[in-house]
Queue: 3 jobs
Job 1
Amino acid sequence: MILIIKGHSFKFEMENICRLFAPQEKIVVADSTDYEDPGDESIVALTALEEKGKNILLTAGLKQGDGWEYLNEQVSSRLDNNELGRRLALLLYRLFVKLFKFTLPWGAVTGVRPVKLMRKLIEKYGEAAAVNRFGEDLLVDEDKIALCLETLRVENDILSRSQPNSFSLYISIPFCPTRCDYCSFVSHTVERAAKLIPEYVERLCEEIRHTGGIAKQLGLRLETIYIGGGTPTTMTPTQLGKVITTVESSFDMSTLCEFTVEAGRPDTIDRDKLNTIKAAGVTRISINPQTLQEHVLNAIGRRHTVKQFYDAFETARKCGFQNINTDLIAGLPGDSIDGFNSSLNGILSLSPESITVHTLAMKRASNLVKDRRDDYDNGVCTVRMVDFSISELKANGYRPYYLYRQSKTLGGTENTGWAKPGYEGLYNVYIMDETHSILACGAGAVTKLRQPGGDYIERIFNYKFPYEYNSRYDDMILRKGRMTSFYETFYQQTQT
């Protein structure tokens, strides 16, 4: 796909609109002077801005095959760049709707955090005007606006608990028993990386101790802990226990509100691991079947059975866990509307405290896309699956408490966390809203330092791969020194 940019600097915004409708297309950006018509069925998009005295002419064009379609709008030159970019993006969006003959439930919203956008608009203009902007200016469906507002109201109570010196801790365990076909995360199968795990655990515990020392030195307040991956329960009970006890000895746990371990794959869960996790003070776990259709599990390379999920859930209850999350994915290859609905009803029969419904994202690094399995693009069915989940979860007493979107999702829908009142996953809200700093340890982890009382965020990246993390640990630890300088800078600004 070719995207022509003429007379403006809104390249990023225009690319995002193109990806909404052509998520698997490679987008080649061209200046109007060097554009060459490919002469085939490739999509060509044109976006242009031209000054006309006291006005500005915005033009969007779209071509597939022989003919061009255009939309124009003449606006005042006094509009700021944000508004000019939005209006130009909307012109292009409308052309795509005409070409593909369908609309997207989130309209022209391209960001991953629509709830955060809604909150900012409400703070600036009031709720009525914010809702109108979502509907009239961004073409968001009414039911998605309602979902956004309901999520926002639940979130607001959680966000109010965070203080200027609050932070959450994320610990990465980038190992899985096998790689699921839809996965694009940097994780390694145990079969290939088992020899790395012992040294990785040692290095990880060192980094946890180092990070805890900095947090205590800066007087930071720990709110939540999330151990994720990967699949943390690929480790042995001894390894899991060592990581968790290192956390407990390295951080002030007196203010901790939530401690989550992602148990993820049912085939990695046993009573010894769950007892180790429970005894260490973990308050919340996630057991994720993704589907309860046996043939779908096989199609995505999941390599566990439906029975293993039910057994793992029952074992977790017997071990005393009273806050369990489960994940489902809408749009998986081989699934159907009836199959997804059956999976959701099976989950509801267990009455977990929270259920997260994801939409399949066709990420370029996943096996689904690398193997060019293009038959999994039924967005209409996926939208119906998500719509069913919303109605059923509400009917069963669950509330949406966090929501985000990904690029390249089937049907352009969303991922939503649902919970019984009082069982919301606090970490999920804090990281999605970017409420406070997230201190992160482990391979692939990203520390996000948020300015106390402000919106500025600085990121510190760890090495992605376990072998790099192990071999270049000392270099990586030097980067963590930026945590101290970051907070000292803002503390000094506050005092002056």
Job 2
Amino acid sequence: MRLTSFHRFGNIELICYNFLYMKLVAKVKLNTNQKSKNALLDTIRTANQAANYISDIAWSEQTFKKYDLHKLVYYDVREQFGLSAQMTVRVIAKVADAYKLDKETKRTFREYGAIAYDSRILSWNLDNQTVSIWTTQGRMHIPFSAGKHQLELLQSQQGESDLVFFRDEFYLFATCEIEEPDPADFEDVLGIDLGIVNIATNSDGNIYAGDALNQKRAERKAFRKHLQKVGTRQAKRLAKKQSGRESRFSKHVNHEISKQIVNLAQGTNRAIALEKLSGIRGRVTVRRNQRYGLHSWTFYDLQQKIEYKARLAGVRVIYIDPRNTSRTCPCCGHVSKSNRPNQSTFKCVRCGFADHADIVAAKNIRQVAVTQPYIPDMPDQMA
């Protein structure tokens, strides 16, 4: 909750607050039997056929706004595809949203692409862990599987849920709105340096090593290369089956690291300082053997996980300019490429100060964040 305005009318004082909410997504798996699976398959296929039909008309008539499309196709879609009133509305919205980016290319939709449900055609029963969902074969009550964290998120489910068909299974991605606590005042700043060899390093000197993740990447890369060389149908089938494992492992590691960082900052009443990493892949030059690590590492994912966990915990996040954070001596302030002779070593050519390079970078990030102007009531600084 944020104080946004204060008004006085004679002896009456009016204080206005703005409640801030964060949108998170809860992913649950639908435990379908053959009947419900066939019904969902038919529903998702029919909805996307309708979306392609609507897109054809939108393109030929050059009509892309949702309200105009609704007047143009609503009754035809209901009659031709047998969709319910609300599902028709959602499919029209899907097409209109697809043309919001630009209107220079005709949009087409995959046969089993995701479709959106709202509260009129999908409802949750969290006690029994079932959903009541509209299908082309009538309403169905389908059980779902979810972990403790997902069930907690679903308590605040708001808005749409996306039905996704992936690897022969159905999932629901539900939008949940979580009220953010007021960010606490902080006494100090915890600097965080993100890297390739060491995923994260903080200004206290703690290193979150990336050995396990880098080893997993190397193994997956070698395995993919082997399967590509074999080139048989079975090898291609295995490659498809194995795809996504590295990404899931990386996200799991990022979750664990971001949780530790936020817990440390919260427990010591500190803000978190991060570098602005936008465009880092085009900005950073690395050796040939490090290029794969640079382009496969989930920079943005770890940063986003740190930020949203920090916001839920009431911890401030500050972004700084990353220039020279790894080349500046924290003792004398001398800046030089020569201060960092290799990836892990920092040694100032002026004063002789030496330490682990990533720890020095984290300390410099903290120092910049401490000295730069900071306005507590400006949430845009966290964006």
Job 3
Amino acid sequence: MPTVAADRLRAIARELLVAAGAPVEEAAIVAKHCVAANLAGHDSHGVIMIPTYIERVGAGHIVPGAPWTITQESPATTVIDGHWGFGYVVTEKAMRLTIDKARHHNVAAATVFRQGHIGRLASYPLMAVKAGMIGLITADSGRSPKAVAPFGGREARLGTNPLSIAVPSDLDGPLYLDMATSAVAAGKVALAAARGETVPDGWIVDAEGRPTTDPRKHRQGGALLPLGASEGYKGYGLAVMVEILCGLLTGLGFGVEPSGRHNDGCFLAVFNVEAFRPLAAFKREVAEFARYLKATPPSDGSPGVFYPGELEYRREAERQRTGIAVEEATWEKLRVLAAKHGLAARLELD
């Protein structure tokens, strides 16, 4: 696999999106979020998604430069229509507004509907952390095709329905949770298929409901399983709650509509720490708590305890130094797109 510096990868993604019709500012936001996912080690939400976004722009499923409108509002709440714009652009703006409302009213929340894929969720609550606040986001894919079977079933009826919470602290790296409510994010299965790899037991079933380690079976009528393996009812229950917050509360609905258009709905909330206790004391104690957890003697064969988000922080520092490995299948798609738009030489992809 080629290894590419983060700055160069951002430039490639940005230029390809602009060539596909995205305004420069929007292309930069999408590229920033995708490469941030690569840096954190979430390659399933990284530049592997750029060809998909360009395809959706061509199909009219993503509308570059779409308006961003508030359909309902109170001092502490907002309902936002993204008009099928890039999800990164729509949700980043929604989070900025929610942070501003929490700054004035201590707690704020928003729902967003009709937008494209919003990528790695942690990006948004981490914006709240920079403002000294706790951020939360959940997301689902509205009525676009589903990937996850309900616990006890074999047919996909749910999205991967992720959630993320980030908390301010005095740690070197951010402390946050970012997880799918399925056994794994669908993108990780697609990534394994692109790399010709197998996946672990417990991730997917085939079209007949049989466990499989072949990631290609997911696209052949199979389904992801809920988080929790034999205790998968827990992941299933979380997925149902996310679907209600992001599909029903937003008005997107449930089930699948025929067009196949990806329509991420999300619910976000921000909590001003200063409304509950002094921020400096809170950040100090969160760091002390994390160090207390890390001081636990490691179990047999374990490298030790990490606080949530620590591995991603370490991986980002490493990849900033050494570059990002891009699977050959994705690199070839980027080369084809560059050639199509006459950018191959400029982007050094010829």
